[in-house]
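Working notes for the structural subgroup meeting. M.R. asked for a predicted model of this chain before we commit to crystallization trials. I am recording the input and output together here so anyone reviewing the notebook later can reproduce the run.

Input as submitted:
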Amino acid sequence: MAPVVVEMLEGLNLTIINGRCQGDYPGNYTFLGNMGSSAIDLVMCNDLAAEEIHRLEVLEFVSDDHQPVSIKSVANKVGLTSKAYCSRTNKVNKPWFDKECTAAKMKAKIALREMRMYGFDERLRQVFLVKRRHYRKIYKERKSNYYATIREDLCNSKSTRKFLAAVRKLKPKSLPENNTISEEVWIAHFEKLLGNDNNEEEPNFIDCRHPEMDKCISLHEVIEDRRKLKCGKSPGADGIANEFLKALPESFQSLFLLLFNQILQGQKPPSAWGD
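Returned structure, recorded in C-alpha cell form:
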C-alpha cells in the first residue's frame, strides 16, 4: 500500500477491515479484471465502528469488474434495529434478457463461485473471465438488437396502433402503488406529532430594489432619449418612423413617460416589441 494512504489512515484513525472480519477471511478480491485481480475496493472505519461490525462479505457479481461489499453490524444480530417489510414483487428482467442471457449469466456465476472456492486459482480465473466475456457479449447483442427492432418498428409503422405499441416499449413501467394509509391518518399523525397550530406569518422580505436603477423613469430621460433617435432608419412593426417621433410636440412625451413606467413596474413589455 502506498505510504501516502497509510499516512492518511493513521491521521484519520481509520482501519481497513477487508480480510479481518467473518465472511471475508483471509480476504477476497473485490476487483476481477482481464489484466489481474486485486482488493482495490477497501472498507475503512474507526475503532468505535469496528466494534459494531459483525460480518463483511464480498458478494458475487458478474456484470461488472468490481464486486459489491456487504456489511452486517452487531446491532442487526442482537435485534437493536427494526426490520423493514416491503411488499413482495416479482423481479422482472429487462425485455431483451432471454434464456440464453440467463444461461450465460448462470455459467459465469458458477465459474466465479468455483474460482473463489479454490483460492482464486489462475486457471479457474481464466475460465471465469472467458465465461463473463461471453455473458457480456450476449447481453450487449440482445440489448442492441432489441432497440434496433424498436427503431425499425417506429420507422416502418403504417398505423397509429403499431406506432404507439413501439413507443410504449420505450416508456418505463410505473411502479405499483401500495399505499394502504389514508390521507386522514397521515394528517392526524402529523398533527399529533407537530401540533395543530396554524402559524402563518407573512414573510419579512428585505427591499432589494436599487434606489437609482429601480426608480421611475423621468420626463427628462424620455426627452433626451427621443433626441438621440437616428433619422433614416427603417420603422418597426408599427410603421412609425423616428422622424415622426422626433417631430411630436412636448405634450406627447408625458404619454410616453406613462407607458414606459407602466412597463417598468409591471415587467411586461408589449409582445410586438419582441418581433
